[in-house]
C-alpha cells in the first residue's frame, strides 16, 4: 500500500480473474466464456461509419440497447438499466441499495465479487452457510433484515433455485431488496424475470458475457421495477454517464436481436454439458447437477488442486479454489465438444485409465 | 428516491452530459468531442477475428494498450494505469487516495464530476474560489492538508497553469497527492508528465476522448509513480478487473500508434481555435485565452443563456451554466472550420450585424 492509499480499502482483496492463456494450444475452461464466437449480426453491425463515429461520446441512455433488451424480455424500457459488464451494475447495486445498517446477505460460497463490493460499500456483510450438499436453503433467506444477493444458478456449484423458491424468499422479504444474479441463468434454470411485475423488491441482473458470447464487450443489464431502475440510473449517471462504449452498444443490440443464434449456442452448450457430466460420472467423478455453462466435479481420491494442476500440465485450464468446503472440487467451463473430448482424454490419462478406454473402442 | 435507495447518496447530483443531437443537421459544439474521425489505424485494427473474439474476456492488465501508452510517453509500464474513460479513473482516485480526514481540494469552477466523486467518497470537499479573471492562483493550493485535484487546462475556462506553477504546488504539498487532469492538455498547455519521475505525489490523468478522437471508446489513463499506479490497479482490480472492453483496447492501441494523425488533428483544432477567437473578439466578445479544444466567451450585452438559446434555435449546441460567476459565458467546442463558420454566421445573425459583415465582403 502506497503512502496516499486510503486505509478504508486496505483489506480489499482484488478479484482474481482466471489465468490468461500463455500458449496458443491451451484450452481455456477456467472463466466460463462461451466457446462460440459472437453472433454474425455483431460483425455486420460494426462498419467504418461506426468506427469513425468513435469520436463522439456514447449515448448516456444507451437507448438502442435498452430498447432491444426490453423488447426481448417483453418489459418496458423503464424496467431496464445497462452497465459496463454486470460487475459495474453489481458495484452500483451494493452502493445504491442499503438500509440504514448497511447489511447485505449472500451465500458463503458464491461469486467472490459480492464480498469485495460489500467490504467496500456496505456496513456489514453476512455470509450465509451453504447446506451439506453445497445447496442454498431458501429458508435461510426468509425474514432477513438487509439486502439479499443470490447468484442463480450459483457459482461455483451450478446449482439453481426454482422460481417458486425465489418467490418464497421475495414474499418473506417484502422490505428488503432481493438481487438475483442470473449471469448463468440461460443454461437451464428458471429465470425470475417473470416475477418483476409482481415484486417491487426484486432486481434481476443478467450479462452478455456468457450465453450471449460477448464477455469482451462488457455489457450487463438489470431488470426490475421502474423505481429501482431509476435509482440505478441515478447513481450510474453520477459516476459513469457514458459507461458503455459505442461499439459495445452496437454489438449488444445486434446480439440481442439474433435469438436463433443465441438459442443454438445455449443448446449446444447444454448438450455438451450433459454428455461430459455423464462421462465424468462414469469415470467415477461426483458431478453436481449444474444448470450453468460449467460443471463442478470432484474425484474421490484425487484432490481438486492436484487435478487442476495435472490438467494445467496438459495445457487445460480449469478453476480450483482453496476454500475448505470445496477444496476437492474443480470448476470446468463447457467448451466445444472437441475441447471437452480433450479434457476427458487428459482426465483418463491423469487417472491412468486411458488404455482401458482405448481398448474398449 | 426509491424505498431501497441509500440515504448516503441522496444528495448526489447526476452529471448532466451535453444534450444529444436531435436533428441530423445540428452542429454539436457542447461536449468537446473532436470534430475529426478516429485514426484510420483504428478501422484497420478491428476485423472479424477480433469481433469473433468478443466471446473472450478482455485482458485485465490491458497489456497492449499500456505498452503503447508507456512507449509514447517514454515511461515504464509500471507508471501507467488505464480506465473505462478518465471518469472511471477519477472515481477510483477519489475512492483510493484520501488522508484520514478525507479532505479534497479543487477549484469552485471546474469539471463537475470532481464534486460528484468527492460527495460520494470523501470526508469533505473544499472548493477553492477562482480569481477575478476566473484564474487559478497556485498560491491558493500551497501547503494544504488533503488531496488536490486540478484540471489543466481548467474547464470551462480553458485557462492553463504553467508546468512551473504546478511544480510549485507539488513542492508545497509533498505529503498530499496532487492530481493533474490533462483531459484538454494536448491543445497547448505544458504537460506535467515530465514531472512524474521527480514527484511521487503527482498523478497525471489523460483521456482518449478529446485529442485522440475516441470519446465513444471510453479510454482514460493515469500516469504516476509505480507506487501510485499499483494502488490504482489494486482498487481497479477489486471493482472492474475487465474494465476496458476488447475493442477499446484495440482501438486505443492503434490510435496511440498513429502520432502523425494525432498531431495533425490537434494542429487543425488549434488553428481553428485561434481564428474563431480572433473573429469573436472582433465581433465584440470577451474570449478567454483557451489552451483547450473549446473557447469560453461572453458578449457584453447578451447573456450567456440567451446566446446559448439563440444558437440552439439555429441548430447549434453550445454549453451554458447558470453558475453566477460564469452565467454570462458560453463554452464553445472547436469543430471543423466549416462548422465554426456556421457558428460565426449564426452569431452575427443573433447580434444583428450580418448585413454589415456581408457588405464588407
From TrEMBL, chains A, B:
GO biological process, one term: L-histidine biosynthetic process
One matching Pfam family: Aminotran_1_2
Residues with the N6-(pyridoxal phosphate)lysine modification: 210
Required co-factors: pyridoxal 5'-phosphate
Superkingdom to which the source organism belongs: Bacteria
Xref: CDD domains: AAT_like (cd00609)
Protein's pathway: Amino-acid biosynthesis; L-histidine biosynthesis; L-histidine from 5-phospho-alpha-D-ribose 1-diphosphate: step 7/9
E.C. no: 2.6.1.9
GO molecular function: histidinol-phosphate transaminase activity; pyridoxal phosphate binding
Keyword Glycosyltransferase: no
Domain Aminotransferase class I/classII large: 25-346
HAMAP family associated with the record: HisC_aminotrans_2
UniProt subunit comment: Homodimer.
NCBIfam families: hisC
Protein's UniProt name: Histidinol-phosphate aminotransferase
Organism (species): Aminipila butyrica
Source taxonomy: Bacteria, Bacillati, Bacillota, Clostridia, Peptostreptococcales
Amino acid at each position: 500500500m502506497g503512502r496516499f492509499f486510503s486505509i478504508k480499502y486496505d483489506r480489499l482483496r482484488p478479484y482474481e480473474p482466471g489465468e490468461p492463456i500463455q500458449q496458443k494450444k491451451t484450452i481455456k475452461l477456467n472463466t466460463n466464456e462461451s466457446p462460440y464466437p459472437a453472433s454474425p449480426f455483431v460483425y455486420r453491425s460494426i462498419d467504418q461509419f461506426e468506427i469513425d463515429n468513435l469520436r463522439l461520446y456514447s449515448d448516456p441512455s444507451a437507448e438502442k440497447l435498452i430498447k432491444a433488451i426490453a423488447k426481448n424480455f417483453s418489459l418496458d424500457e423503464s424496467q431496464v438499466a445497462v452497465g459496463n459488464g454486470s460487475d459495474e451494475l453489481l458495484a452500483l447495486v451494493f452502493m445504491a441499495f442499503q438500509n440504514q445498517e448497511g447489511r447485505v446477505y449472500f451465500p458463503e460460497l458464491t461469486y467472490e465479487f459480492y464480498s469485495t463490493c460489500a467490504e467496500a460499500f456496505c456496513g456489514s456483510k453476512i455470509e450465509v452457510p451453504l447446506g451439506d450438499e453445497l445447496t442454498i436453503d431458501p429458508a435461510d433467506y426468509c425474514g432477513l433484515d438487509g439486502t439479499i444477493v443470490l447468484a442463480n444458478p450459483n457459482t461455483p456449484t451450478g446449482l439453481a433455485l426454482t422460481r417458486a423458491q425465489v418467490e418464497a424468499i421475495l414474499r418473506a422479504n417484502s422490505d428488503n431488496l432481493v438481487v438475483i444474479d442470473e449471469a448463468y441463468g440461460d443454461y437451464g434454470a428458471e429465470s425470475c424475470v417473470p416475477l418483476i411485475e409482481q415484486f417491487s423488491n426484486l432486481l434481476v441482473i443478467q450479462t452478455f458475457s456468457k450465453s450471449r458470447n460477448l464477455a469482451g464487450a462488457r455489457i450487463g443489464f438489470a431488470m426490475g421495477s421502474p423505481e429501482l431502475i431509476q435509482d440505478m440510473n441515478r447513481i450510474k449517471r453520477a459516476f459513469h454517464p457514458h459507461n458503455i462504449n459505442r461499439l459495445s452498444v452496437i454489438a449488444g443490440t445486434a446480439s440481442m436481436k439474433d435469438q436463433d443464434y443465441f438459442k443454438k449456442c445455449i443448446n449446444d452448450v447444454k448438450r455438451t454439458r450433459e454428455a461430459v457430466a455423464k462421462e465424468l460420472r462414469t469415470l467415477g467423478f461426483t458431478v453436481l447437477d449444474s444448470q450453468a455453462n460449467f460443471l463442478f466435479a470432484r474425484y474421490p481420491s484425487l484432490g481438486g488442486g492436484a487435478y487442476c494442476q495435472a490438467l494445467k500440465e496438459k495445457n487445460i485450464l480449469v478453476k480450483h479454489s482453496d476454500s475448505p468446503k470445496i477444496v476437492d472440487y474443480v470448476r470446468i467451463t463447457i467448451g466445444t465438444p472437441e475441447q471437452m473430448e480433450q479434457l476427458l482424454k487428459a482426465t483418463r490419462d491423469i487417472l491412468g485409465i486411458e488404455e482401458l478406454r482405448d481398448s474398449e473402442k
